Amino acid sequence: MNPITVLYFGDLMAKLEIGREQLRLPPSVQDIAGLMRILAMRGGAWQHAFGQPRPTLRITINKQQAQALDPVHAGDEIAFIEGISL
Fold this sequence. Notes:
Largest sheet: 5 strands, mixed
Distance between the termini: 39 Å
């Protein structure tokens, strides 16, 4: 699969210490849930951020609201947005 772009906003950017990356996903990853499983396998803060679904995490695909079972295609821009803690 050609790369996708993954963006991290809000608390995620601070906790993961990254704002953007390009990923080549294995063919077995077909949707957002699969992407989140791959990210969670990095362990530590990544496991905490992507291991369990939570209502405070917003997801977009190509700037359109998305959900865990929405498909991921080559060239997509996926954004994970977590509200800022005060």
